[in-house]
Amino acid sequence: MPHFEIHASDVSRAKSFYSGLLGWRFSPMPGGEDVDYHLIEGTDFVEGGSLTGGLMRRMDAQPASGSPVRGGTMTFEVENCDERYAWALANGGAEALPPTDFPGVGRCAYVEDGEGNIVGMISAPKEGS
């Protein structure tokens, strides 16, 4: 079962960011209280399903904003890449890659999440591209 984790210095701020950006919900994981561990819930996450995710308190210093990629990059499908990118910038995110068309792939953008992580968004390609 694929699983990913997002590390955050401010778990509450990160929960708000990802709830707004991708519509996720979070529930505390029993036994994970020491690291403020939360399981991610949403349309792409099903208990016992093919994808699970967690959000937890970062155990060391947060990487400096604007520094090179410092971990895995997660990219999620969204309906409108430009709209989600604008939302992210207005809600604590920072530009990593503005919305860009990749022929045959789709429209993609990356933002910093305010916690030292980079998250990507991709929309389906427009017809004829």
Automatic annotation (TrEMBL):
UniProt key word Lyase: yes
Q: Which PROSITE patterns match?
A: VOC
> What keywords sit in the KW lines?
Lyase
Name of one Pfam family that matches: Ble-like_N
- Gene Ontology MF term list: lyase activity
Q: Is Lyase found in the keyword set?
A: yes
Annotated VOC domain residues: 1-124
Domain of life here?
A: Bacteria
**Which PANTHER family does this one have?**
GLYOXALASE-RELATED
Name of the featured protein: Putative enzyme related to lactoylglutathione lyase
